[in-house]
Amino acid sequence: MSEVLLETKNLKKYFDTPRGYLHAVDDVNLTIEKGKTLGIVGESGCGKSTLGRTILRLLPPTSGQVLFEGRDVATLDKKQMFNIRKEMQIIFQDPYSSLNPRKTIFQTISEPMIIHQMFETKEEVTNRTRELMETVGLAERYENIYPHEIDGGRRQRIGIARALALNPKFIVCDEPVSALDVSIQAQILNLMMDLQDSMGLTYMFITHDLSVVKHISDDIAVMYLGKVVEKASSDE
Ligand SMILES: Nc1ncnc2c1ncn2[C@@H]1O[C@H](COP(=O)(O)OP(=O)(O)OP(=O)(O)O)[C@@H](O)[C@H]1O
Ligand SMILES: [Mg+2]
Question: Rounded to whole angstroms, what are the CA distances from 27 to 11, 77, 127, 196?
């Protein structure tokens, strides 16, 4: 039996602009089943990133609901939100601008675990960080270098390791391979699909690239001007 992990109900995010309200996300109803990938496609500016950020409550919704395991994320208090953050993560398009240039790879990956006090000892954090690096295919020799010293594919591996650090259930992947060379895109996509299988992850995968979305998604939703205009299985 399939189980719904995340559901949006009449979700809206309007931005108050000098020219009036911009309906970036307009009445979106989606469901994502546990362990599956929902692809989100649509032209630039149609609201894909805003939808992802609103689901994670990085942006407050204008109205509507985001149900994560049946609980409305919008009604959680600060403490509950802090806890649910562990379960919902994001991977960005450009790992270069989303990673702190002054932190080493080791520091970048271990930081969420320290903030969330996941372990009691330094040694446990170190072990877990090394394990994560191995999981995403980063050699231990990269531990003490900085994000700008390595190529885009490896940088995105850091972004993935960081997103995995708190053992999330759900990850919004916002164009995670769009900035990479085509030859490297396949490696990262395969890594993400392997991780999904081994960890039972659920993805919302945002992209404008139809061949990528078809490859990775179980279902696909097409957005246009803030609305979902079409939903279908990937095969369809
Ligand atoms: N903070 C904001 N304030 C005002 N308008 C915004 C804000 N963020 C996004 N928008 C607008 O909302 C709309 C949706 O933007 P969004 O970034 O979600 O689109 P997108 O589908 O992710 O585009 P892209 O494919 O280029 O990444 C756009 O018109 C954008 O200009
Ligand atoms: Mg975007």
Answer: 5, 24, 44, 29
Residue from 49, 93, 223 whose mutation best tests the ligand 1 pocket (most atoms within 8 A of CB): 49
Q: Which ligand 1 atom is nearest residue 93's CA?
A: 27
The domain ranges of the chain are: 1-87+170-176+202-236
Res 98: pLDDT: 80
Residue closest to 195 by CA, chosen among 109, 120, 110, 134: 134
Ligand 1 centre from 23 Cα, in Å?
A: 10
Identify the CATH number of the domain defined by range 1-87+170-176+202-236. 3.40.50.300
The torsion of the CA quartet 132, 133, 136, 139, rounded to 10 degrees, works out to -160
**pLDDT at site 1:** 65
What pLDDT, in 10s, does the model give residues 172-200?
A: 999 999 989 998 999 999 999 999 999 99
Using a 6 Å CB cutoff, which residues line ligand 1?
15, 17, 22, 24, 42, 44-50, 208
Query: Which position has the higher pLDDT, 46 or 2?
Result: 46
Question: What is the C-alpha separation between 184 and 154, in angstroms, rounded?
Answer: 9
